[in-house]
Each structure stands twice: as structure tokens, then as C-alpha cells.
Specification:
- The protein is α+β, with helices and mostly antiparallel strands.
- The protein has five helices and 14 strands.
- The chain has three domains: 2-237, no CATH class; 241-292, no CATH class; 298-368, no CATH class.
- The protein has helices at 2-13, 23-34, 101-106, 171-177, 218-237; strands spanning 57-59, 65-69, 75-80, 121-123, 140-145, 148-156, 168-170, 189-199, 276-278, 281-283, 318-320, 323-325, 360-362, 365-367.
- The chain has a six-stranded mixed barrel. A two-stranded antiparallel ribbon has the order 9-10.
- A hairpin with a 2-residue loop joins β5 (140-145) and β6.
- The N and C termini lie far apart (67 Å).
- The relative contact order is 0.12.
Length: 368
């Protein structure tokens, strides 16, 4: 009876407003669920979902994000009860801490560990796949589930006892997503229809002042994430999208992020809308393959963005008077074009093959 009452209290505590899924994010969700991934973190595309199904991995083929995907499917949602509480004592697999507790303490978040019953967090990475080189600890993770959007943080990783399982979230996030499924520490959501979209870059980290970390209410924590979540989603993923026909930039938009004009492709099925795959690049159906000029590969760090140092600005832009601008004249327009979004000047790389056009990989960054 005590355990059942605790579980009911947890469920009642997580009632919060669900956020609407933006149209471009919904399109991305649909395409990922029905498509494939071109590049996996660590080259690992055969991770397990914990239900005996393999073929999952963390996809890196879209600029500014890392997401969990499988073969024409998305992730499921196992339940994480780790941290300050134990899902009302209903979890048989509980640990008293979460993966980034040292950061919570050293950066003065006001809590010593996350509380799965209060803090919405996603579990990313596995025993043999460390994602910290791609995603910063406590980074924002947008979660599309049950036709709605919620925000979470990257708060935990799967330990070696979980055999490289994927698709897991804190109990508070799971009950927000699926309030009518009776989820608890020993019962998760088994359908593969959840998009975990983690944002890259240090600016995507949910800091001490970006959420109400000290709250004891799951709904208050989710509500407190909304403003920061919306800003990062817009900055990193885009509230607007570039033209789909580079030969006629005044018409059409691109809704399939990562598959727009200039994206690499093998067939026309890899390209958004009416774009066609020509010479390995998505281009206009009339034959054009060159994307719109004057693009910026590091969203949120383009011309006009606020900055403290040159390292905060994309490509050759420099930080002048707290604003990213042109390197030579201090102007606001980045000069170069790039045909492979996410692999332009300033993008991280391991080899020259990771860089667009004539760019080379120098000191881990694509450069001329």
C-alpha cells in the first residue's frame, strides 16, 4: 500500500502542460522514423533497446544535434529511477547518483544529484559508447513523444550492467509523455516512437539559472525549462528553414533538416521535397545543386551573435564589441559558402573527409 501510494503521488506530481511540436520538428520526426541514418557516433549502429532488438545507434548526420534511431524506427522509453529518490521504492535497479553529479556540485546548481521523480532527464550513451565528445553533460534534449514535445537534460548514461541498452528516461519524463500507461520503475514504454534530440555545443547546456533545479515539483521543473528549451530549439534547429530550390530562392522551404539543398545524398529519396540528388548533392529539380550563399555552419554563433571571444564565433568571424562579425572589416556577413551543411569552416572534424569542398581538417576544425 505504501509503495502504491508513493507511485500515485509521483504520477499526480508530473501533470504539466505539453508543448506543441513545431512543424519542422514534426517533419524531421516523421522522416527519421521512416528513414535511415548516414553516420553513427562511434560507428556503432547495432546497439540494443533492452527488449532484445538490435540495430540502434546515436545518429550524427544532422548539424547541431545527435539523436537515437534504429532501422526505420525511433527509441523506446525504459525508466530511470536513479538519483535522489527511487520512484517510490518501485525500482529494482536503482543507484543513488546520476552521471554528472560532480558538475551539479562544482557549478553550484543547488542540488547534489538529479531526482528522477522531479527532473526530466534523458539517458544517452552506453558502457562502450561515450557521447561526451559530441554532447556536453546536462545539455538540452528535446523529446517528442505521444505527439507532444517536452524538454529534458542529458542527465545520466547507461552503465555496463545494461549491456549497451538505449532508450531510457527519468520516471518524471516518462509519465509526462505517457500518463495513461501506468509506467513505473519496473514498467517502461515499449513502442519505438520516441525521438530523443540532443543539442550539441556548450551553449546548449542547461545552466544553474536556466531551470528551477531546487523545485520538488516535476511540473514546475518542466515549465521552468520551457524558455531555454524554446531558445535552443530555435537557435540550433531553426524556426525557419532555407529555400529548397537554390535556383529560385524566393520559393519553397526545406522541412527535412539535414536533407536540404547542398546536403550529401545517394539517391533523390535522400533529399527534401522536390530536390534531386545530382553528383552526390541535393539540388533543385531544375538542375541547380549549389545551396544559397552566405551560410553559417555553427547556428547560434553566426554574424550578429553575442560573444566573449573569437572561439565563440563561427568560421573566420571575430568577436568585436561582444558581437560576432567579419574577420577583416568587422562586418556582419560571413563571406564563404559551403555545400555540406554541418561540415563547413569551423565544424569539428577528425579527417579531411569530414570537411566540405576544399576545406581541410586542421587541429580538429575544418578550415581553408
Amino acid at each position: 500500500m505504501v509503495a502504491r501510494s508513493a507511485a500515485l503521488a509521483t504520477l499526480l506530481a508530473v501533470s504539466a502542460s505539453a508543448w506543441s511540436v513545431p512543424s519542422n520538428l514534426q517533419t524531421f520526426y516523421n522522416n527519421v522514423k521512416n528513414g535511415g541514418c548516414k553516420s553513427y557516433a562511434g560507428g556503432k549502429s547495432n546497439l540494443n533497446d533492452g527488449q532484445g532488438h538490435s540495430g540502434f545507434g546515436f545518429c550524427t548526420d544532422t548539424a547541431n544535434v545527435v539523436y537515437l534511431t534504429g532501422k526505420n524506427s525511433l527509441g523506446d522509453m525504459d525508466i530511470d529511477c536513479d538519483g535522489a529518490s527511487n520512484c517510490g521504492g518501485l525500482s529494482g535497479d536503482w543507484q543513488s547518483g546520476t552521471s554528472f553529479d560532480d558538475i551539479l556540485v562544482s557549478k553550484k546548481y543547488g542540488v547534489k544529484t538529479l531526482d528522477a521523480s522531479v527532473h526530466q532527464f534523458s539517458v544517452l550513451g552506453t558502457c562502450n559508447l561515450n557521447l561526451e565528445g559530441l554532447i556536453s553533460p546536462l545539455a538540452l534534449v528535446a523529446v517528442v513523444c505521444n505527439n507532444q514535445l517536452f524538454y529534458s537534460v542529458w542527465g545520466d548514461t547507461n552503465g555496463c550492467d545494461d549491456n549497451n541498452f538505449t532508450g531510457e528516461a527519468s520516471i518524471s519524463l516518462a509519465q509526462l509523455c505517457f500518463p495513461n500507461e501506468g509506467l513505473n520503475g519496473n514498467k517502461g514504454h515499449t513502442a519505438h516512437d520516441v525521438l530523443y534530440l540532443a543539442f550539441t555545443g556548450s551553449d546548449a547546456v542547461v545552466g544553474p539559472s536556466n531551470a528551477n533545479w531546487k523545485t520538488k515539483s516535476a511540473s514546475e521543473f518542466q515549465n521552468s525549462l520551457k524558455a531555454f528549451g524554446d531558445s535552443i530549439l530555435t537557435k540550433k534547429f531553426g524556426s525557419t528553414v532555407p529555400p529548397s530550390n537554390p535556383g529560385n530562392p524566393g520559393t519553397g522551404t526545406c522541412e527535412w533538416v539535414g536533407h536540404c539543398a547542398g546536403a550529401t545524398c545517394k539517391t533523390s529519396d535522400d533529399c527534401d521535397g522536390d530536390l534531386e540528388c545530382k553528383s552526390g548533392t541535393c539540388g533543385g529539380s531544375s538542375g541547380g545543386t549549389t545551396p544559397p550563399p552566405a551560410t553559417c555552419s555553427w547556428v547560434g554563433h553566426c554574424a550578429g551573435a553575442t560573444c566573449k571571444a573569437n572561439d565563440d564565433c563561427d568560421g573566420d568571424l571575430e568577436c568585436k564589441s561582444g558581437v560576432c562579425g567579419g574577420s577583416s572589416s568587422g562586418g556582419s556577413n560571413p563571406p564563404a559558402t559551403c555545400s555540406w551543411a554541418g561540415h563547413c569552416a569551423g565544424a569539428s572534424c577528425k579527417s579531411d573527409d569530414d570537411c566540405s569542398d576544399e576545406l581541410a581538417c586542421k587541429s580538429g576544425k575544418c578550415a581553408a
